[in-house]
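Protein modeling request. Please complete all fields; requests missing the sequence field cannot be processed.
Requester role: graduate student
Desired output: 3D structure, token encoding
Chains: 1
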Amino acid sequence: MTSTSSSSSAIKQRRRALGWTQAELSRRAGVSRSGISAIETGTLVPAVTAALALAAALGCRVEELFAEAPAAGGEVVWLGELPAGGRFRTATVKHRLVRYPVEWPCIEYAPHDGIQRTGGVWEGEHADPNRTLVIASCDPAIGLLAHHYRETTPYRMFVLVRSSKASLALLAKGLIHMGGVHLVGEGRNLGNTETARSIVESDVRLLRMARWEEGLAFAPAAKIRNPEAIRNRHVRLVGRERGSGAGQCLAELLGNRPWPAHLASDHRGVAEAIRNGWADAGVCVRLAGEEAGLGFLTVRKEPYDLCYLAEQEDDPRVQALIKTVRSRAFRSDLSALPGYHTEETGIVSR
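Delivered output (350 residues):
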């Protein structure tokens, strides 16, 4: 195949010579508008069927766009199944177009990019996968970062709510740009890096968000005076998945007590279960506990990092995110939240 840039240029030049918008080429070729955008910017290599359709629509031979027919790669990838009528968002990650079903909970209600329909998909004109950054994170303050990123850069960001290990698994598969991780206790500065490399099995970088306070949130009526009180089987617990950052902290506190039967998907889920009276206590970060009006006992102050692949370090979306995290405005807003310590915010470890 010719270089991606030359192929992209040929497609764009022919489209413009015909006076077509990307939307018009999308309609004539049967290729999504977001796919056209990704192909023209060189971040997506079209599959064979898409290349043939583009050539037919532009009135030329596929060899005029590509030195040889593209391999059957660069196809659209879905993160999970989506029923007819379901909404999705899109982003380009490692030269692939990834479609993400809109999930609950939504950190920010950004507009969806398209809708799955019987027999195909509909995509809106505002979708721009090449200017979209995707982060998987359990940080309850990640919406604050999304706000600053959207307001101060030409890019947008959306978040998949995932535990640390689930986030790293998505990063390893090339389905997200960054994954949040907190899998070490206080005092082990390199621990997140070591753990991330072992799961991702690739060279990674870690951007320090903060050191946050993780511990035991509890209903004020429970009158819990120390974290070890949860070993009393009369205290109803809400848990987290084993192996998650909060799950590690919970395991340290449980002693010989069995793992809780009821699990929450994230920090706010733990706090909500306690606030609504379904449990007496559980492990989360201080922010989630205090937001819900709960009592809180700090167990450890641990590093929370955003992990990304070293090979994606030059991606302008990643560089814009790093600049946002290091900005005075974001650091000031983050430090005002309970339990967030920002002395190391913005440091990148290798």
